[in-house]
């Protein structure tokens, strides 16, 4: 079964062709980072317009890349939520309409199920049951996964998501949007032990997270060190200390260490609580090298294993949507003539496969 996947929930247009026998045939990702850079965050209306501009050309492109004609495609999977409603509507309308025109089914896909299943696109895939750590721009969740579609949220962030905390702190340090990867890069030249930030909510039982306090802690240090808080791109204050770049790197190091430590503590608890020794990490922050390293060590200690998607499939992409859609179509089929876009949607509401 050959499925076309369309992802348009935020600021990436991701298109892919996935075949249930042959695997991933082609994929394209267009990132709108440049469109939103001047605003320091995603502007929803601009995102929608750019998806309108890019979706159809990229669909044509993957068909050329994979040397596939429309007659060979058996279904279309599109992200129907959660995400920005205007952006979602673009993928949903194009996906549903194209499926109608081609006389094939269209299936609405949950974006976080897409992230959660992205490691299934790799050669070495996890067995059920597993614990999934979803760490992205909008979500931080620990999910017990018994099967595809059988999801129980064990814990989640009560305020900022991990990626959001990375991005906000990066902004305070004067880095461009999205700052997560840039903050991680800056942390590489940071000195351990100069600053120490809290590990929020680790002093009490439970698997929920909180990251907004960490951002405030970083903001306080940035202020007290005489580095101007970023609102604009120039953070270089006339009176800033000479070694401002090193101070920033040291702050980035301490911040990343605190986030990674906090996440690892909660993962350890989830493993101990459930007895499940397979950990899957997915979503943009799962690209973080320190996080991967720390969790690999943790799972080794528990005689378990950690799985994650290849780098480009950690953040938003069409391949994960095509894969998740293929699983749902195989099981249920779906030819409702509805265009579905749900800005808010819990992964627990999905039916099991
Ligand atoms: P959601 O999936 O919750 O709707 P999203 O789609 O915006 O949110 P993703 O595309 O999965 O999120 O991930 C983007 C996030 O990942 C951004 O916050 C980005 O800063 C963060 N990120 C990407 N790479 C890294 C990295 N190496 N270290 C830390 N954070 C990273
Ligand atoms: Mg993005
Ligand atoms: Fe995402």
UniProtKB/TrEMBL annotation:
Binds 1 Fe(2+) ion per subunit. This is tRNA N6-adenosine threonylcarbamoyltransferase. Its EC number is 2.3.1.234. Pfam families: TsaD (PF00814). It catalyses: L-threonylcarbamoyladenylate + adenosine(37) in tRNA = N(6)-L-threonylcarbamoyladenosine(37) in tRNA + AMP + H(+). Its cofactor is Fe(2+). It is an enzyme of class 2 (transferase). Substrate binds at residues 134-138, 167, 180, 288. Fe cation binds at residues 111, 115, 316. GO terms for molecular function: tRNA N(6)-L-threonylcarbamoyladenine synthase activity. Keywords: Acyltransferase, Cytoplasm, Iron, Metal-binding, Transferase, tRNA processing. Belongs to the KAE1 / TsaD family. It is found in: Cytoplasm. InterPro entries: ATPase_NBD, Gcp-like_dom, KAE1/TsaD, Peptidase_M22_CS, TsaD. Required for the formation of a threonylcarbamoyl group on adenosine at position 37 (t(6)A37) in tRNAs that read codons beginning with adenine. Is involved in the transfer of the threonylcarbamoyl moiety of threonylcarbamoyl-AMP (TC-AMP) to the N6 group of A37, together with TsaE and TsaB. TsaD likely plays a direct catalytic role in this reaction. Residues 24-323 form the Gcp-like domain.
